[in-house]
Amino acid sequence: MQFIKLVIVTLVLFVNLAIAQPSWAAKNFTKGADYTEITQELNHLLPLQNTPEEAGYTPEQLQQRVLQLQSQKTIIETANKRAQCRNETGKTLAVYANKGKKYPTQLYYLAAGQITDDDWDCDGIYLPAGTQVVLSPNSQPEQLTDAIAVKFVDGTQSIAKTNPATGAIELNVEPAKIFKAGEGNWSIPSLSQAEIDTQIPSPQLID
Asked: How far is it, in rounded angstroms, from Cα 111 to Cα 123?
């Protein structure tokens, strides 16, 4: 009788492993909308490298855009967990995150020194007007005149940190997109950093 029970339990376990994706299995982000959009734009731009004006670019601008897209494509292809945001700014950081259809993308608050849990997708970061920020490598700090949302592609491990010399927020990964209020699908409120600092950090983000 015990042998029969053992056989049944073994069969059930085998079927579960065969049918259900293990929780520890790496997620394939190449099936997402970000990857499709990037691939389509690359397929459009690559044949135009000798005639960049047809795409509305100078040769330098087209080369830069192709490199950006190829970098984003590589991030998605090599990612083994959901996008995460790490806050090394020394103050509260407003981030856009989602956890499937039950918790669609909206604004949450991440305390200094924290990183979002990989059960969530950290889609991007909110930066209020007046922020000094470096949005791309090798660029100079700029002061934002309007609040913006920066979006990262699937699987991005982003870090926002404050440069102690300049006081500017620096991002380790160039954003895939930048939105102002009225652009894109995200809500972009008018918040100051002082108002963000008064927000209680969202505990569900770091479970």
From this structure: 17
DSSP notation for the chain: -HHHHHHHHHHHHHHHHHHSPPTTSPP-GGGSHHHHHHHHHHHHHGGGTT-GGGGT--HHHHHHHHHHHHHHHHHHHH--S--EEEEESSS-EEEEEEETTTEEEEEEEE-TT-B--TTSEEEEEEE-TT-EEE-STTPPPEE-SS-EEEE--TT-EEEEEE-TTT--EEESS--SEEEETTSSSS------HHHHHTSPP-GGGG-
- pLDDT per residue as tens digits for the range 40-76: 999 999 999 999 999 999 999 999 999 999 999 999 9
**Nearest CA among 120, 154, 137, 129 for reference residue 39:** 154
pTM over 0.90: no
